[in-house]
Known about the structure:
This protein has helices spanning 15-26, 43-59, 74-86, 98-107, 220-225, 235-250, 253-273, 304-312, 338-355; strands at 4-5, 66-71, 90-95, 112-118, 140-143, 145-146, 151-152, 163-166, 183-187, 198-203, 278-280, 291-296, 316-317, 328-331. The chain is α/β, with parallel strands linked by helices. Helix 2 (43-59) packs across helix 6, helix 3 runs parallel beside helix 4 and helix 7 runs parallel beside helix 9.
Amino acid sequence: MKKHNFNAGPSILPQVAIENTAKAVLDLNGIGMSILEISHRSKDFQAVIDEAVALFKELLNIPEGYQVLFLGGGASLQFCMVPFNLMNKKTAYLETGVWAKKAAKEAKFFGDVDIVASSADKNFSYIPKGYTIPADADYFHITTNNTIYGTEIRTDINSPVPLIADMSSDILSRPVDVSKYALIYGGAQKNLGPAGVTFVIVREDILGKNERPIPTMLDYRTHIKEGSMFNTPPCLPIFTVKETLKWIKSIGGVREMEKINIEKAGLLYDAIDRSKIFVGTAEKDSRSLMNICFVMKEEYKDKEDAFMEFAKGRGMIGIKGHRSVGGFRASTYNALPMESVHALIECMEEFEKLNA
Length: 356
């Protein structure tokens, strides 16, 4: 039976990226050694990371003055590194979900945090609007896609202060005007590669502006100076990221990727909206293209477990909603084929015929 991978992360990757990584594990480019065992200081690995950086810059049209880094520690370490490097006295955060809250929590160790708006009042089912970004903040932090609740900021905000974005789960799913951001970061394992590597896109001129001593490993300037190789980087995940970037380029880049993602999400949201038994949880003008969250209507709540078993029997993997919200979540990341979306819709419609 074919499996349809809707996991929220680690998640589906392009098949060609998986196959090429598997080959590199056995023998990297015919050098007679595995990517797992070569020196990160070798010309063979330097070529890998150089290509990954170049592809990132090309696909996102990253302007001059920005650096692309590949680090460890996940996005969660960036929750700390961002304020450590950029905060003097006060920052501003938009609270749109669990990960946004965790980012703000870390910033509070370094100074005052202004939560400019929050959607906690409706269980993070929408993206707040009409808020004011304080002009005296050192930066403004947003989480562009909220995997647990299925909401997404799909436009580039005009901010009067440096704009910082956690794009862990929607990076390269749409074009981004990088020039509007001072720093973009994210874990790779949702839309870009396997767990173990974190990307950071940082504008160099925002660094070195505070007087706080910064531990060497937590200073972005350390990693810029050393080309992401101050210590041994996560070599294998970086290789897979490079292969995923090559795949995105091969299908037409991020503009083509966005068209595909809009179509995939649109098909699934349309199926939910016309359903007699399913209902979406995110407000329509805040819906994510990456994580489609839905539940059973109240009168069918007792059938949620039955649907999970029904879907599992038809090859649907990873559609159980996050434990904090329940229901269902279909993650339609870049690498998810249209075939899987059609298969899930057919599964939902078949279950509805049997139970509505």
